[in-house]
Specification:
elongated, alpha+beta
């Protein structure tokens, strides 16, 4: 199985590459060992899954229909893996890693879990703000019903509870319940 590391954009090296760059504005990738991307594609097997992964091993791209030419691995590494049921379940969500030999589910660090929770918190606060704005307008204009006033209070309480969450153990966050209309 082929495994090529650290592709970077580089200047064309051969007269043919220079001609392609000048005629078609082609860009070239070269690996750490000098392998040129377009030239090495013929060496990949037709019946394997091709992946591109970053320097942390996180899978960022998967070749469409096993066609390695559908990848553009600038700043990444490329490997081919066996076409197995387990490998076909992989996606590019960031939840899979390649260790140089096999693909595994990604194990997140506590800091990564905290950042994921903070991202979720920001999304929930933004959603709450969208619900609060028209309700607040109705109250400000003295157009709100009692039900709308009560709902506004619930959404504001929810937003405050979100802002006070403790992220020290992101896996044990007790997210507040979303208010219902």
């Amino acid at each position: 199985m082929i495994h090529i590391k650290n592709f970077k954009i580089g200047a064309p090296k051969t007269p043919e590459q220079i001609k392609l760059r000048n005629k078609h504005n082609a860009m070239f990738l070269f690996s750490a060992d000098g392998t040129e991307w377009y030239g090495c594609q013929k060496d990949f097997s037709v019946d394997t899954i091709k992946i591109a992964y970053d320097d942390k091993g996180i899978i960022r791209s998967i070749a469409a229909n096993k066609d390695v030419s559908t990848l553009w691995p600038a700043g990444m590494n490329v490997a081919e893996v066996a076409d197995t049921t387990a490998n076909r379940r992989v996606d590019i969500s960031g939840g899979w890693v390649f260790d140089g030999k096999k693909i595994d589910k990604r194990v997140y660090t506590p800091e990564e879990h905290q950042e994921q929770a903070r991202t979720e918190q920001r999304a929930r606060i933004a959603a709450a703000a969208k619900m609060i704005a028209p309700l607040q307008d109705a109250v400000d204009l003295d157009m709100a019903s009692e039900a709308e006033r009560a709902l506004l209070d619930e959404w504001k309480r929810y937003r405050v509870m979100l802002s006070r969450l403790d992220f020290s153990d992101a896996l044990k966050i007790n997210w507040p319940a979303v208010p219902h209309a």
